[in-house]
Amino acid sequence: MNLRVTRSRPWIWGFAAAALIWLVILAISGQGGGQTLSLALSLAPYLVIVGLGQMLVVTAGPGNIDVSVAPVISLAGFASVAVSAGTGSALAGVLAGIGVGLVVAVVSTVAILGLAIPPIIATLAAGLVASSVTLHLAGGFTAVPDPGLRELLNLRPLGVPALAVAIAALTWLTVVLLRRTVYGRSLIAVGQNRRAAERAGVPVSRVIATAYLLSGALAGLTGALLATYIAPSADLGTRYLLDSVAVVVIGGTLISGGRAVPVGVWGAALFFILLDGLVNLVGWSTAAQNLLKGGLVLFVLFLAGGGDRARSTAPRLRRRPRPAAATTTTTGDNSDG
């Protein structure tokens, strides 16, 4: 694959890895790949939603990460199903889930920007509070997800999940947000050089706060939809913490900030979903599954960014400046002449 193309389109590696895993599944199972791909497209959107939010936070620059997404997904799932069952409105339930995410994000943002607490600590603390509330709600919880919304989430016109189409549209809107709006350009600028952005008049605190609020809202949306698709549980969002960070990085977004690749989140999400299907098909133990996942993730990360990092850290030869004494002598000679 042309290195120049992959540098300009870092999302290629995630899709390439997903295609490779898909081919391996076909070779092992010996069945058609349409059903496997359709299942992957049914599960990947949930990871893409939370991944897009995590991407915005990571893009804000070094140290920015939202580790509260997993507890938010779990809590939002319970809140959404409870409100939906109590009001009879699926929309009210989804909005309740988003509201939960926003509340937790506000707590994190105040701690980060108002109290200068490191993001990983602030979001971890907010997540622990959310986890405590979730455990309280889980005891004796009897509400059931809205059947109409569940039917909608399972809708597959022409074999393509309707949710995948909707989240593809959300991904496109995220691309527009980053490329065509003042906020998107400001977020990229803050991620590349926060001090320079401040000097240029960019409202840095507002930009960062918005990123965390969007991440919280998207995590809440994920929880509301996922709890309806599966069922609310205290560990509903557990796997989405590490996965949300991994799909961001594998998708081409710089972990140091300043570059966001929304399309890459899709490729990386498909890679993870198909990888889960592969290890389940093979029947490996949990330890072997984690070993395979870790090895493949590191391999894709190396392909996606290892070469660039090596080039950026390689020493460069610089021309030695002319000695000051020699310059003075030359200038003196010219003056004398």
Automatic annotation (TrEMBL):
InterPro entries: ABC_transp_permease (IPR001851). Keywords: Cell membrane, Membrane, Transmembrane, Transmembrane helix. It is a multi-pass membrane protein. The chain crosses the membrane at residues 12-31, 37-58, 65-85, 91-113, 120-138, 158-178, 209-231, 237-256, 263-285. GO terms for cellular component: plasma membrane. The keyword Amino-acid biosynthesis does not apply. Residues 309-337 are annotated as: Disordered. GO terms for molecular function: transmembrane transporter activity. It is found in: Cell membrane. This is ABC transporter permease.
